[in-house]
Write a structure and sequence with these properties.
The structure holds 3 protein chains of 3 kinds. Chain A is of the alpha/beta class. Chain A has helices at 40-48, 70-76, 93-100, 106-119, 121-125, 136-148, 166-181, 193-199, 217-222, 224-230; strands at 2-11, 14-24, 29-33, 55-60, 63-64, 78-81, 154-158, 185-190, 202-207, 210-216. In chain A, helix 3 packs parallel to helix 6 (136-148). In chain C, helix 4 packs antiparallel against helix 10 (205-231) and helix 12 packs antiparallel against helix 13. Classes of the chains: A alpha/beta, B mainly alpha, C mainly alpha.
Chain lengths: 235, 292, 316
């Protein structure tokens, strides 16, 4: 479904991604692991169109995503939940959600909104509250819901567990599992390797802009280097 | 000062203040959404007013139609400026953006002087007739038009910002531009829209106020300066803070001018500096200015 | 010496010769020399602004005020208090520097747009205050200011002023260049590039910002003082926001952050209307506006970039 092929991209004079190849099939959850600065966020930004593809290609289904604007990528059926959640602090929960469905017609927006409220009851409760007043966990739920509003076929998630208490992280990952069941494919960028490998079908490890390892989640879980670097107790 | 005089000064101050508010709100809207402080706001309005003047006098277009055309022209100008000038320097420093708008201001003044010559001209007011008496307050008809037009403009702006998805998008961009782009909001179109609205407001403000002065290339200079005072007072982060700030400045200025006519203008300038130093977020600004 | 070095020396020599010989070329049209003199005075003030903005990264929309203070202080001291002209000029520079300190304070707490608005307001209010004081001639301005004199020698002709100003200009430019190459100068540029980094490196950011303002103000004050004794007339309206923006424009058009930018910008600004001629006066304003816009959008280093390109073309 998603194919990132030998992609080079970066910021200014620096190439962050160096011939990265990643693929994701329909219905899969694929994890991308790696340390800070390895290029995980850059990868997601390149797919979404926030950063230009310098070499290589990104294809979604049969559509080439190179050069598309973020708005166009969303229209293709990919949504991006950015690192740090980026909730609009002075807009209400409802406004936050509706903006995520900006490209949709009014009627569709309403039905999507109702679907989100059904799925995330906490958001329904807080629908008129300002985004900035929500707790960390609630904001992550809001961020996930925003990612779901445009009815994506593929969701890109950047570090959803960042800054959250372990119990909340559990809720988040449970939600992701539910999403997979409802047919949404997920590309998950995470530092929390343990949980990611529990959830994901396959995984990649990025080291300084290149794919160092790839395989099924079970394979990587058993891999010695992965255990040492990413699964060794505390981060 | 008797109470009647106080009321009259306040009423008249509100009409001037409404103009400062209109100009200021346009500046804040553009500032908050596109991160550009448009020092050409006043002169954009001035140029639109010249176009309107020639539509009325030479082409003999009826006044009400001219008003609409002028506002539309303002919107078009704003849109073109964003699309062809601001967009290419978006990533540069504050200084570059300021300089660009100052250059634009100079361009408008030069074009106005070059095309229309600099002699002051008398701009016909929208309505003529005797002033109207409302209790102890006597207001000229043009002043009433100004107040009504300003109220309508405030209302339209409110509806835009809080009842349309484009307005919500504009507000979201001012809070977190990156997030807006990630969500798939078409930020370039919103920028153009915001510039169009801001410039249209400048055009409206200039048209409403010009009958009070004579039409010459520099007539919006001082008004723009006072609009800046208004937005500093109201808090640069808040469109409606700018509105309140403008009204306050208009009223206070009028009262001060009655008692101490000499210091009227410099008074305002010192206010800016004091507010910036003592209360940088203004009366209605939020905790930490997001963009600066 | 390499061929390009000799070529460069030859061109530089030719420029120097041209500069020295110019008054003779125009001896029948001393008005041209007069304009060049004004351009040079503007260039000096612009150099100060360039130091502030181009190298210091500090926005100032009130620079004209420093010229006004320098000019008025010097003029009033000479006319009302009969102070020696040289002393008065120095006093003008000092007064401007003092105000540079005052206007520099907001820069410690404000930045970007806020600083622009604050300097705009402060600059305009200084012009406004000058307008209201009677000692400065108030709304009528100050007239009949004595002519510039060095010791006993009065500089009455445009040509004599020309050579004097060329000398002053060269001195100012050398001083600025040496300052920029010094440790202080590098600190100033470090602050412009990143306050946080500079501070982490031990640079006293606040002190350097103030120093930059004071230095820039002094230079502008010098320009103002010389201007007063050249034009013999000062009016506060000429030093308001409009003129501040003109100085800014000269900086930008000439090239912000370059040493020769100010003189290129000032020459362009003063000579373009002269070249175009009286009938099409406002065409200059249009061209200025377009030049600023064009400079910001396409030629960030302004005219000095054009010069640099010509230099590469001619393999200098």
């Amino acid at each position: 479904m998603l194919r990132v092929d030998q992609v080079v991209s970066g910021y200014g004079p620096i190439d962050v991604l160096n011939h990265v190849t990643i693929s994701l099939d329909k219905g899969e959850i694929v994890a991308v692991l790696g340390a800070n600065g390895a290029g995980k966020t850059t990868l997601l930004r390149t797919i979404t169109g926030l950063i230009r593809v310098r070499k290589g290609s990104v294809t979604f289904g049969d559509k080439l995503l190179n050069g598309l604007s973020p708005a166009e990528v969303v229209k293709c059926g990919i949504s991006h939940v950015p690192e740090g959640r980026h909730i609009f602090p002075d807009l209400t929960v409802e406004e936050n959600l509706l903006l995520a469905a900006y490209i949709m017609p009014r009627s569709q927006q309403k039905s999507r909104l109702d679907a989100m409220y059904a799925m995330f009851s906490i958001l329904a409760e807080r629908r008129k509250q300002a985004g900035g007043t929500l707790s960390g966990g609630e904001q992550q739920m809001l961020a996930l819901a925003r990612g779901l509003m445009p009815n994506p076929r593929l969701m890109l998630l950047d570090e959803p567990s960042l800054g959250l208490a372990p119990k909340i992280i559990g809720t988040v990952f449970d939600t992701l599992a539910r999403l997979r069941e409802s047919g949404v494919s997920i590309l998950l960028v995470e530092q929390n390797a343990k949980r990611s490998l529990e959830l994901a079908d396959r995984a990649y490890v990025l080291v300084t802009g290149q794919v160092a390892l790839e395989g099924t989640a079970r394979e990587l879980n058993g891999n010695e280097m992965v255990r040492q670097l990413y699964l060794g107790g505390t981060r | 000062m008797s109470f009647d005089i106080f009321l009259n000064l306040t009423a008249r101050g509100l009409t001037t203040g409404a103009i400062y508010a209109l100009v200021g709100m346009g500046i804040v809207l553009i500032l908050q959404t596109t991160n550009v402080m448009n020092f050409a706001q006043g002169d954009t309005g001035m140029f639109i007013t010249y176009l309107a003047f020639f539509m009325i006098t030479t082409a003999k277009v009826p006044y009400s139609l001219v008003l609409i055309l002028a506002i539309a022209a303002g919107a078009v100008v704003g849109l073109l400026v964003e699309r062809f000038m601001m967009r290419s320097v978006r990533s540069r420093s504050h200084l570059s953006l300021i300089m660009l708008t100052l250059g634009l201001s100079l361009l408008f003044q030069g074009l106005a002087a070059f095309l229309f010559k600099t002699e002051p001209r008398l701009f016909p007011p929208l309505v003529s007739g005797d002033p109207i008496k409302l209790g102890p307050i006597i207001l000229g008809r043009q002043d009433i038009v100004v107040l009504l037009a300003a109220i309508v403009a405030f209302g339209v702006l409110y509806l835009f910002l809080y009842r349309t998805k484009q307005g919500a998008a504009a507000r979201s961009i001012s809070q977190d531009e990156y997030a807006a782009r990630v969500l798939g909001i078409p930020t370039p179109s919103i920028y153009m829209l915001v510039w169009a609205i801001g410039s249209a407001m400048a055009g409206l403000a200039a048209l409403l106020i010009v009958p009070r002065f004579s039409l010459e290339p520099s007539f919006m200079g001082l008004i723009q300066m006072k609009a800046f005072t208004a937005i500093v007072l109201g808090g640069m982060g808040s469109v409606f803070g700018a509105a309140v700030g403008g009204l306050i400045i208009g009223v206070v200025e009028n009262l001060v001018a009655y008692q101490f006519p000499a210091i009227k203008d410099s008074f305002m300038l010192i206010v800016i500096v004091i507010v910036l130093l003592v209360l940088p977020q203004g009366l209605f600004g939020k905790r930490q200015q997001r963009r600066f | 010496m390499t061929p390009s070095n000799t070529r460069r020396m030859a061109v530089n020599g030719a420029i120097v010769a041209l500069v020295l010989v110019l008054p003779l070329v125009f001896r029948t049209k001393s008005s041209i020399i007069g304009y060049l003199n004004i351009a040079m005075l503007y260039a000096i003030a612009t150099q100060g602004l360039n130091l502030l903005m181009g190298f210091g990264g500090l926005v100032s929309l009130g620079h004209a005020a420093f010229m006004a203070i320098g000019g008025y202080t010097a003029a009033v001291l000479v006319m009302t208090y009969h102070v020696n002209m040289l002393v008065a000029v120095v006093a003008g520079v000092a007064a401007a520097g003092l105000f540079g300190l005052v206007i520099g304070f907001p820069s410690l707490r404000l930045s970007g747009f806020y600083l622009a608005v604050a300097t705009m307001a402060l600059g305009s209010s200084i012009a406004d205050v000058i307008k209201r004081l009677s000692i400065t001639g108030g709304d009528y301005g100050l007239i009949n200011i004595p002519t510039l004199r060095l010791g006993g020698w009065e500089l009455t002709t445009e040509t004599s002023k020309y050579y004097f100003f060329v000398a002053i200009l060269v001195v100012v430019f050398l001083v600025v260049r040496n300052f920029l190459n010094s440790r202080s100068g590098r600190a100033v540029r470090a602050v412009r590039d990143s306050e946080m980094t500079a501070s982490a490196m031990g640079v006293n950011v606040a002190a350097y910002k103030l120093v930059t303002f004071i230095f820039a103000a002094c230079i502008a004050g010098l320009s103002g003082a010389l201007y007063a004794f050249t034009i013999s007339y000062l009016h506060p309206m000429n030093f308001g926001l409009t003129f501040s923006i003109e100085l800014l424009s000269m900086s930008i058009i000439g090239g912000l952050g370059t040493i020769i930018g100010p003189i290129l910008g000032a020459l362009f600004w003063v000579m373009l209307p002269v070249v175009i001629g009286g009938r099409m006066e406002f065409l200059s304003t249009v061209i200025f506006g377009l030049s600023i816009i064009g400079s910001v959008m396409f030629l960030p280093k302004g005219l000095s970039e054009l010069v640099a390109r010509i230099q590469t073309r001619l393999k200098l």
